[in-house]
Specification:
By secondary structure, the protein is an alpha/beta fold. The protein has a single domain, classed as 3-Layer(aba) Sandwich (Rossmann fold). It is 42% helix and 12% strand. It has 6 helices and 4 strands. It has helices spanning 20-34, 57-65, 80-85, 94-103, 115-118, 134-155, and strands spanning 9-14, 40-45, 88-91, 112-114. A 4-stranded parallel β-sheet has the order 2-1-3-4, sandwiched between helices. Strand 3, helix 4 (94-103) and strand 4 (112-114) form a beta-alpha-beta unit. The longest helix is centred in the last third of the chain and has 22 residues, at 134-155. It is globular and about 40 Å long.
């Protein structure tokens, strides 16, 4: 991934916006702040089932143990204006990416990527930990931390 200093606003997306994308948002914000980057980072879901909800308690607990803040993060669904507003839209998995591609105006398709592959990682998808046990949330954090460091390094 080549450095892209024109990226100022990043949207991270999963299905319900309560587990993976809030974790991606919290970690990305912390990593950007640590590198002195001023980025706007937000998260959203491809569905509105959890609209207005706080992040899943298990995600927040796992992230908070590593020092990440989930303050102010509430679930929302991706809206049409997001495709224009954000410079980069990074998805947790292939299903999220397909859902967004189906709704994205053609002029903005170049902004859509998988979170992990954009970060130059061999793993393609961030697994959904929602129906699993606590270990899944730790794996998500491990993947997201590494990917976020790669992304922030490329933007710095």
């Amino acid at each position: 991934m080549a450095a892209n200093t024109s990226v100022k606003k990043i949207l991270v997306v999963c299905m319900g916006n309560i587990c993976r994308s809030p974790t991606m948002e919290a970690v990305m914000k912390a990593k950007a702040r640590a590198q002195g980057l001023t980025l706007i980072i937000d998260s959203a879901g491809t569905i509105n089932y959890h609209e207005g909800s706080s992040p899943d308690k298990r995600s927040a607990k796992a992230g908070q143990k590593r020092g990440y803040s989930f303050s102010g993060i509430t679930s929302r669904q991706v809206v049409k204006s997001d495709f224009e507003e954000f410079d980069l839209i990074l998805c947790a998995d292939k299903n999220n990416l397909a859902d967004l591609k189906a709704n994205c105006p053609p002029a903005f398709l170049h902004k859509l990527h998988l979170f992990l592959t954009y970060a130059g990682m061999d793993v393609v998808e961030v697994p959904d930990p929602y129906y699993g046990d606590g270990d899944g949330f730790e794996l998500v954090l491990d993947l997201v931390e590494t990917a976020s460091e790669n992304i922030i390094k490329a933007l710095n």
